[in-house]
Amino acid sequence: MTPRLIWFRSDLRVHDNTALSRAAAEGPVVAVFLRSTPQWRRHGHGANKLDFWHRGLLALRETLQGLNIPLLHRDIDDFAAAPAALLDIARETGATRLHFNREYPWNEARRDVEVTRTFDEAGLTAIGHHDAIAYAPGELLTGGGDYYKVFTPFAKAWHRQLSGERLTLHDAPRPQHESPVPPDPAPEPPTLAGTPAAPEAWPAGEEAAADRLERFLRFRGHHYVEQRDFPGVAGTSSLSPYLALGMLSYRQCMQAVLAENGGHLAEGDAGLTAWVSELVWREFYQHVVVGFPDVCRHHAFQPHTEALPWRGDAAGLAAWQEGRTGYPLVDAAMRQLRHTGWMHNRLRMVTAMFLAKHLLIDWRRGEAFFLEHLVDGEFAANNGGWQWAASTGTDAVPYFRIFNPTTQSQRFDPDGRFIRHWLPELAELPTGSLHEPSARQRQATGYPAPVVEHRAARARALEAFKGLTP
């Protein structure tokens, strides 16, 4: 029997993998991975994400070996080379069918269309499956037949139309009697621009993801509402890197919540339902990139905000990137990002709004910096979050809402635990001074003065936004 190809991308798991399950149901399977490092770099991904991707591939390869499924891998320069590379592998292995799970951003979707067309012209079949989210983009629409622009009605429709079928887990394939073709040797690590920040903090693979999910739901999930906004507490799931690269599926997450929450997703335990809402937010942004593809081309979701008079403040941008703005919570968050490849969600909002509102620097500069450093860097979620904070996107925070970083610090790091950890130069200050050190304390510790005064920055941002015409 001729083998089927399963093309892995950002779905590095064998359990609950739609494309793999469908391919294995048809006959023997050969796995394929195309590493597009130059393309991924052009898309803005940095060493942390690319290293995690590589380690995830190695973990997948080991699991596939236990199933006697060979993994073939190729390095290509860009997505345009994918159709020919896959067609060559199909001819080498005698495969007539290719299965893959769809990706939704503009460039990835165009790549998949070209792969399907190339296979069709060669008399072969390429089949894309919707796997990463519950509803394929276009399935959930407003009463007027449009894509949702606001999260709350989207979430209501998501829950209202949800069926058990959408949450059914796909079986992992059984071990094959023999390998259809010899596997390739393990791939060499990619050449990275920089050194990964903290790979030990992010063990790769679906076993690590499943373990982290279980521990979150058992020990922290029920307290998620009370703890998720406090960066000094381990209150979040820390599952975003595993979801971004598909080492864990949304169905596995939802099924785990159902088991822990009496069969409910939208009611019951407040912590668990709040976490489900965050997963639905992630899906919402995947729909946005399809329904409003201009966001994939560096455009604001709200076109009138393109007229904002962004400042070309190189010194301010560097201070923000390096964690020396003079606002302790902002600086601690940016140092967390640079040292771990991850940032607490509350702090992503605080730091993003500081750049876009306090410094009036184009949100796209911050979006790119985050994507370069985040181990969980995912275009749709990152773009959606940045545009929310900058008041240019869907569900955008009203332009006049501008977080006071000192107040945010006092509220969400009241004992200064997070600040002390990431700003050791301030560790000996009294807690009351940690959030806003005096000039004397700054001089004594070498901590910089604020790059901008909050009231003046707020007034400047309000003036900039008031001049826009929707």
Please explain how this structure is put together.
The protein is mostly helical. The protein has 21 helices and five strands. Strands 3-2-1-4-5 form a five-stranded parallel beta sheet, with helices on both faces. α10 runs antiparallel to α11 (270-291). The termini are far apart. The model has no long low-confidence stretch (mean pLDDT 97).
Tags for this entry?
mainly alpha; Rossmann fold; chromophore; Serine Threonine Protein Phosphatase 5, Tetratricopeptide repeat; Cryptochr/Photolyase_FAD-bd; DNA Cyclobutane Dipyrimidine Photolyase, subunit A, domain 3; FAD binding; 6% strand; 470 residues; globular; 5-stranded parallel sheet; DNA binding; flavoprotein
Describe the global form. Answer: globular
User: What is the chain-wise order of helices and strands?
Assistant: EHEHHEHEHEHHHHHHHHHHHHHHHH
The largest pleated sheet is described as:
5 strands, parallel
Number of helices: 21
Q: What CATH first level of the largest domain would be assigned?
A: Mainly Alpha
Helical content (DSSP H or I, runs of 4+): 40-55%
Class inferred from helices and paired strands: mainly alpha
The total tally of domains equals 3
Q: How many E strands?
A: 5
- Sequence of strands across the biggest β-sheet: 3-2-1-4-5
CATH superfamily of the largest domain: DNA Cyclobutane Dipyrimidine Photolyase, subunit A, domain 3
Q: Kindly report the CATH topology of the largest domain.
A: DNA Cyclobutane Dipyrimidine Photolyase, subunit A, domain 3
Q: Evaluate the radius of gyration.
A: 23 Å
Residue stretches low in confidence (pLDDT < 50, at least 5 long) are none
* Mean of pLDDT: 97
